[in-house]
Amino acid sequence: MGTLDGKVAIVSGSGRGIGREIALKLAAEGASVVVNDLDAGPAEETVAAIEAAGGKAVECAGSVTEEGFAERFVQTAVDSFGGLDIIINNAGYTWDSVIQKMTDEQWDAILDVHLKAPFRILRAAQPVIAAQVKKAEEAGEPIPCRKVVNISSVAGTGGNAGQSNYSSAKAGITGLTKTLAKEWGRYNVTVNTVAFSFIKTRLTEAAADGNSTIDVQGKTLKVGVNPDLFAALERSIPLGRAGTPREAAGSVYLLCTPESDYVSAQTLVCGGGFNM
């Protein structure tokens, strides 16, 4: 038996990297998972991996910034598994520049994916959660503790040069988390944030040589970190290394367990002892 048996989770951006590991971990502990990615292929691969391990999952591909996506994402959980218990707002990417060179498009795109999209998903989830709570109350049944974990970054807790858009969005997640913890406490929902520092993913392990890119809705964006800088950053981490996606997923899982049922409105830094 898993600690999350009978729970239904939605995880945005879970076709690759940290999000994939979160989906795999929740499913391994018994949750039924709705897997999302911008592209259907990676989402389907994560679903296949979950099912191969004996878990339950369905995919809901698409951009979290699209009109109507949030409602479709939430409804997929209801239609496929009968409810909603865990929400992980993880999807995102970076598009960096110093402020004098940053365009309105860059600013808006990053705020949309990292802050507006989680807001929309949580807004879409509220009627479903409220209805589930009302049904339990009318039946005289106990109201289970549901979980929201919003993903942030140490850039949001301490700022980071070249990331005014990303840092602002992630700082905003803290405000969203604290507000929803107050609004949804009456539903027995805990709302927390996990802020990652340096985690080894396809975005951070790529060399910053100008040749490493990702494609996001028709935009080709440069990614990567200078290897010397990354090595220096690792030396600044008390544990002496960057984290792995599986370790990052573990910190999210902690806030989804019954043991964290009285922890809400908090920001957990998953950074090996490092914080900006």
Summarize the structure.
With 276 residues, the chain is α/β, with parallel strands linked by helices. It contains 9 helices and 9 strands.
Mean pLDDT over the residues: 94
Classify the helix fraction into a percent range.
Answer: 40-55%
Low-confidence stretches: none
Strand content: 15-25%
The number of helical elements comes to 9
- Strand arrangement within the widest β-sheet reads 3-2-1-4-5-6-9
Largest sheet: 7 strands, parallel
Distance between the termini: 39 Å
Element-by-element helix/strand order:
EHEHEHEHEHHEHEEHHE
Please give a structural write-up.
With about 280 residues, the protein is of the alpha/beta class. About 45% of the residues lie in helices and about 15% in strands. It has nine helices and nine strands. The strands form two sheets. Strands 3-2-1-4-5-6-9 form a seven-stranded parallel beta sheet, sandwiched between helices. Strand 2, helix 2 and strand 3 form a beta-alpha-beta unit. It is globular and about 60 Å long. The mean pLDDT is about 95.
Attribute tags:
276 residues, 45% helix, alpha/beta, globular
Task: Summarize the topology.
Blueprint: E1 8-11, H1 17-28, E2 32-35, H2 40-52, E3 56-59, H3 69-81, E4 86-89, H4 104-138, E5 146-153, H5 154-158, H6 164-184, E6 189-196, H7 202-205, E7 213-216, E8 219-222, H8 227-236, H9 245-254, E9 267-270
Parallel strand pairs: 1-2, 1-4, 2-3, 4-5, 5-6, 6-9
Antiparallel strand pairs: 7-8
Helix pairs in contact: 1-2, 1-9, 3-4, 4-6
